[in-house]
Design brief:
10 helices; alpha/beta; three-stranded antiparallel beta sheet; single chain; 15 strands
Length: about 260
């Protein structure tokens, strides 16, 4: 197993349990304990975990896996979710995208579809407003898409811009639809994110949009995160995978959320 693969596996273990034990990780990854110790030392140097005697623990109470380590989780589900969400965005629409692996997949799907459209006159086939640097970078080379990025301070874990400069730009735009990635969704509390600054930006996306579409695989449903984005009364549609429970579907439907499971 290569070092990047080991690191990805170790971060997955950290995300699932909040801690990593050297002996258990060595067995799970079929490598020596010395290799695991070196890997954990290097990850600690990058401030991605805290080394302890016999292993490592996550930073803080609520652990957030960096975006580059989340991209392989539930990949097929996210691609199906992205395709279904893209179907909800009409030609010529102004769409807001926050950061995350699922919204990145939505952006890629929209880019492919916009590439097959002919923009009318000087009007773009699609306008995307985003605070995610990686999404902006991928879409900037697409001539059929008008890309608008917010200002703000970049968070290295999620590539999202946050802060007053970000919300200042969002206050000046009007969106047809906001497609939001989340870290948790609760039938009573609404949708949530791990970080309060990212939650604030996502809330502003929702406030500026005529429709709000939440994209999340079923592992996010029924989970809570630290910072609340908004209540379910602001959410029009949830696009998720087919592993969503029937009970959760019923609760969200009762709350007025249209559920699409793919």
């Amino acid at each position: 197993m290569s070092k990047p693969d080991r690191w990805n596996a170790l971060m997955e273990l950290m995300a699932a349990h909040g801690r990593v034990d050297v002996e258990e990780a060595a067995v799970a990854l079929d490598v020596s304990t010395a290799t695991i110790r070196r890997d954990l030392d290097e990850l600690a140097e990058q401030q991605m975990l805290v080394r302890t005697r016999g292993g490592a623990i996550a930073h803080g109470v609520s652990y957030e896996l960096p975006l580059r380590y989340k991209s392989s989780r539930h990949a097929s589900e996210k691609q199906r979710i992205a395709a279904a969400a893209a179907d909800l965005v009409g030609e010529g629409a102004v769409v807001g995208l926050n950061g995350g692996t699922t919204t990145t997949e939505v952006a890629r799907t929209l880019a492919v579809r916009a590439g097959g459209l002919e923009a009318g006159g000087t009007s773009p086939a699609l306008t995307v407003v985003t605070n995610a640097l990686n999404i902006a970078g991928e879409l900037a080379v697409r001539p059929q898409i008008k890309i608008v990025t917010t200002g703000g301070v970049a968070r290295p874990q999620s590539f999202e811009l946050v802060g007053p400069l970000t919300t200042g730009v969002l206050d000046e735009v009007v969106l047809d639809v906001a497609v939001l990635g989340i870290d948790g969704m609760d039938a009573h509390l609404g949708i949530m994110a791990h970080q309060e600054d990212e939650a604030g930006v996502s809330r502003r996306f929702a406030e500026r949009a005529h429709r709000v579409v939440v994209v999340a695989d079923s592992s996010k449903l029924g989970r809570r995160a630290f910072a609340r984005i908004c209540g379910l009364d602001r959410v029009d549609t949830l696009v998720t995978d087919a592993r969503m429970s029937g009970e959760m579907t019923d609760r969200l439907t009762e709350a007025g959320v249209r559920v699409t499971a793919v």
